[in-house]
Request: fold
Amino acid sequence: MNLTLKVWRQKNASDKGKIVEYKVNDISPDCSFLEMIDILNNNLVELGDEPIAFDHDCREGICGMCSMFINGRPHGPSDEITTCQLHMRSFKDGDTIFIEPWRAEGFPVIKDLTVDRTAFDRIIEAGGYVSVNTGSAQDANNLPIPKIDADKAFDSATCIGCGACVAACKNASAMLFVSAKVSQLALLPQGQVERKQRVENMVAQMDEEGFGSCTNTGACEAECPKGISIENIARMNREYFSAKISSDNV
Amino acid sequence: MSLTGLFLIMFLAVHLAGNLQLILPDEGKSFNLYAHNMANNPLIQVVSKGNFFFILLHVVVSILLTRKNTAARPIGYAASKSASKATWASRNMGVLGTLVLVFIVLHLKGFWFELKYGTTPMVDYDGETIKNAFLIVKEAYQNPLYVLFYVISMALVGFHLSHGFQSAFQTLGLNHVKYTPIIKFLGLAFSIVVPVLFALIPIVMYLQNS
Reply:
């Protein structure tokens, strides 16, 4: 396959950046999207150019690092996959492909396609954990959990924190990510002790990071590689309202 | 947005029930008596002030929300395909809302202001002389352009409601496997039926008098 790539190049955080056009030839349709960028980078290195910086790690769809906005969609044209799971057979010979970084005030560009997603880490640090000592594992029958709650908590916990929800949202809102993290703990008994302060602190941190507010378009769940539902956002709103009304935080 | 929106949705339903009396075949008698009672009921006067307040609050909150959300993405995408799941209305609530606001201002100027502060023709029913609100509406709808303006505006209201109705429940945290499909269906039905009935009023009155 021969392709034309229009890639966002930006030297560093303070550089203005621009779209640069590249041609890649003889790409196998079985090549993954990241391998295609690897091939382009090899060519660039051979020509003495700076290779394109991009995030990637596990290359098996579980780490959430490969953040690329491909042809107007996070992680490209297919549903429920990350960029590393995208293959070139999803494109046609002669296609022009736009490749851009996630765009959000909360995700500043570090270089080229690499963005700083530590805002998500700070939101987790604000309360996305259980700090009470739960001791060593006890008999499982002592903690009965309805199957439906366990399944929902597990579905929420599949969030890999990639940021596709922010990238896809017209408001660059992080509500799907934060609500998944709030939900997975709100649904389980271990999360109850810190339930109210968790949602209050995580939402406060989310706002501080400069993410937008949810207007319920549903673009996030359509682009989420793990199929996280906006049912979580409604749950977080419920948690937030009830915490605001009843918590001791004045 | 959700709480003020839900109040305005309730207002729309009541407003429609009252206005449908315009097309009753009694030369506006029931509508005029209804308008007269509304204008002299102290409770309705309080709700009416509340309605103005909630419209303004809805607008102010939407401006703050839009400012925050625009600031959340200072640099846009060169290529951006909107997700197929996000409806056109949901992505353009601000534009739709602004156009609806323009309509509301012109609508208030044409009827509410005229009735309250203009020189209104009077009508006599069983010895009681009251304002002939029906006549003002009837004369306004003689102009086909005015009728067209109302019909287009109602289409905009319909699109605004198609997202707003169900979105209000989601914002309030009311998402449930049993009730969300019902809410979505009611939202769609409301956003079609209410604007269509509203739009029928000027069309029917224009046809009756042409």
About this structure: Residues 143 and 164 of chain A are 35 Å apart (CA to CA).
